[in-house]
Every structure is written in C-alpha cells, then in structure tokens.
Amino acid sequence: MLSKIVTVPLWTLVFALTAVLGSHEVAQAGSEHSWLQDPNSHCKFVAPASLTAGPTFWTGACTDGKASGSGMLRRRDGNRAGAAFFGQMKDGIPQIGVVDLGDGYRAGTFDQDDIGGQAVSEPQVRIDAFRAAIEAARFVSAKYKAENNRGSAQLYETLAKTFEAQLD
After folding, report:
1. Under 8 Å between Cβ of 114 and 50
2. Which residues 6+ apart lie within 8 Å of 104 measured at CB?
3. Which residues, in sequence order, are CB contacts of 9 under 8 Å at separation 6+?
4. 121-126 contacts at long range (C-beta below 8 A, 24 or more positions apart)
5. Which segments in the chain show pLDDT lower than 50?
6. Which of 8, 21, 33, 68 could form a disulfide with 63 if both were Cys (CB 3.0 to 4.6 A apart)?
7. Global pTM?
C-alpha cells in the first residue's frame, strides 16, 4: 500500500509551532507565582514578595476560590501583625496598592512578584496605588465595625487617613 505525501506550506508549520510554544509560555507564566492560601477561608492568592514568608491572611472577597477586589493581605508573626498589602486583587493576583512595611511603604502595581518594584514609578501610578490602599483600609475598617470590633475598625480607619496624607 502506498502512502500519500501531503505537502503543507511552511507558514502553516511556523504558525502552528508558534501557537504551541506560545501556549506553553502562557502556561509557564501563570504558574511562576507562588500561591498561598488563607488558613481560615482557604481563599488562594499570590502575596507580594515584600510581605516575606509567613502565615498570610486575606480580608476581602473570595471569588471562585481566589482573592478578589479591594482588601488586605496581612502576614502574621505569631501573635504580632506583620507587613500588609492594601489594594486591589484580581483572580488572586495583586493589581495595585500599597505594602505597609511598618517603617515605610511600597506603592505601585504588581510586577515581578512585588508591589512598587519599578525603579521609577509614574506619579499617577503612585497616586492610584494610595487611592486603592485607602479604599481597602476603609473596607477592612467597615468589616471590623460590622463585627463590633471597634478597636480594629478605628485602627484601619486611622491607617486610611495616614494613606490619604501621602497624597498631599
């Protein structure tokens, strides 16, 4: 039995190979983040590298099992509150906001596994990051107020005002 040889234009092969390699790159890009999970809600997220390693908790919405919208990622060091990210999350990935390191802030968009890692940040990006952080801190404050935890509600409202002062 004779086999029929099929000829395919070179551009078709190049296109097909590009599609296969491109999808492999996308798959790798999506898996390069280290995913964490809130110990209580089991909501998944990627924490900015500047939060450093440790138990991290998400306060905010959890859509399809991933942190979403405005909220706070807070690292805990035993009974002490550690560094925190305040801002916007999408599909478990930080988008924009501020990392409060206790002795300073990192503000900006999420890039290369951290917030505000760009050498030179555009002034508008910094302003938008602090606005996202203000919204997130007020969201967290309202959550604690609804739970009748006045001390924590006041703490996060004060932090929102501190973030506002960074815009002046």
Report:
1. yes
2. none
3. none
4. 125/96
5. 1-31
6. 68
7. 0.78
Question: Residue 19 and residue 24: Cα distance in Å, rounded?
Answer: 9
Structure token pair of residue 23: 């999808």
Residue type, 30: G
- Secondary structure (DSSP) of 38-66: -TTT--EEE--GGG-SS-EEEEEEEETTE
Q: What is the pLDDT of residue 118?
A: 65
**One-letter amino acid identity for 40?**
N
Q: Which of 41, 68, 78 has its CA nearest to residue 57?
A: 41
Q: So what's the pLDDT on residue 92? A: 97
Residue from 114, 113, 111 nearest 99 by CA: 114
Contact 57, 24 (CB under 8 A): no
CB atoms within 10 A of CB 1: 2
Measured between alpha carbons, how far is residue 128 from residues 25, 57, 133 in Å? 30, 24, 9
Contact present, 50 and 99 (Cβ < 8 Å) = yes
